Amino acid sequence: MGKPFKKELEIIPHTIQEINEIDLSNFTSEYQALLTFPLIAVGSGGSLSACYFAEALHQQTGNIAKAITPLEVQSSINIFRKINVLIISASGKNKDILLAFNSIIAQEPNKVISISTKENSPLKTFSAKTSIAENFAFSLSAGKDGFLASNSLVAFFILLCRAYGNETKNLKLASKKVYLEDINRFSKSIIKETTYIVLYSGWSKPVAIDIESKFSEAALGSVLLSDYRNFGHGRHHWFDKRKDNSVIISLINPDDEQLAEKTLQLLPKDIPVLKLNSKNSGAFSTIDLLIQSFHLVDNIGEKQSIDPGRPGVPNYGSKLYNLSYASLLKKINCLIIKRQLLLHGKFIQYYLAV
């Protein structure tokens, strides 16, 4: 199952060019409707990283946004009425995202836009059945991703960047030669039991989320996340007790470079640190750092004899992915609705069919 991860990395420059050349006039025209309201962005796995990028982009418009998983949709079902929703799913067909879509539509949101890389997906079919939903599918010549989200994720980041008015043809990526040398030096200090502490701020948060996702999904190592200042509120103590098998990955751009450097200068000098650094500011730095992080994943995988693009999936993993649980949510949703009715001074025995 999957594809060699190195091969997927080789295709990324073409994917960037491909998405930059797509006519997005229909998509951006529809997407404008989302910009004047708060936004909930929904996704699973690698797509969740893109949701955090949408969160960051949307909040630049002055409106609040939140990235959540499909299961969080079910536990937050009362927030969707009259709100805008973005759903991101490469395949547009996994059970979690389809169940989330139906649950959201039932709450009568203002607008639901979904993006995928597969034409004629169930998500597109579901969207066509309601006037408040629209699906946009952008097929890639790279084809389906391997086990980890790679080219589809880069495509989503570029699409979202353009949707919020950024001209991504002007994006300049960091020199691969420089950061590959840094990654190679850093990985010499890595062992199988290493714990990775990823420090981020602002625009690098989606990249931190994606590093944790990829390291977990490919079984490359344990990852702890913190922004630079929350790290100062106790999380630094990890190194006092577990320094021998712990390292830092510092995500840096010009917006937070001084804070990052001041933070790192206060730590013991014998802690291995990898600085992934982008010269871009804002949203462009996120895309730049994302691609750099892919090469980190590839390097650590190679060191551990794991191909992140095809790490091997046990039978129970496939069963977990395809788990059906809609019926289990019926009781939960009944309790949520009952609580809402009680809050309004009413009590009605209400049964929700899921």
Strand arrangement within the widest β-sheet reads 2-1-3-4-5
Q: Rg, please?
A: 21 Å
Helical run tally: 14
Structural class, by secondary structure, is: alpha/beta
The whole-number mean of residue pLDDT values reads: 91
Overall structural domain count: 3
Helix fraction bin: 40-55%
What's the CATH class of the largest domain, please?
A: Alpha Beta
Distance from first to last alpha carbon? 32 Å
Element pattern in H and E:
HHEHEHEHEHEHHEHEHEHEHHH
Major β-sheet profile: 5 strands, parallel
Q: Which spans have pLDDT < 50 for at least 5 consecutive residues?
A: 346-354
CATH topology descriptor of the largest domain: Rossmann fold
Work out the number of β strands.
Answer: 9
CATH architecture of the largest domain: 3-Layer(aba) Sandwich
What share of the residues does DSSP label as strand, in percent? 5-15%
Protein name: SIS domain-containing protein
Organism: Pedobacter aquae
GO molecular function: carbohydrate derivative binding
InterPro entries: SIS_dom_sf
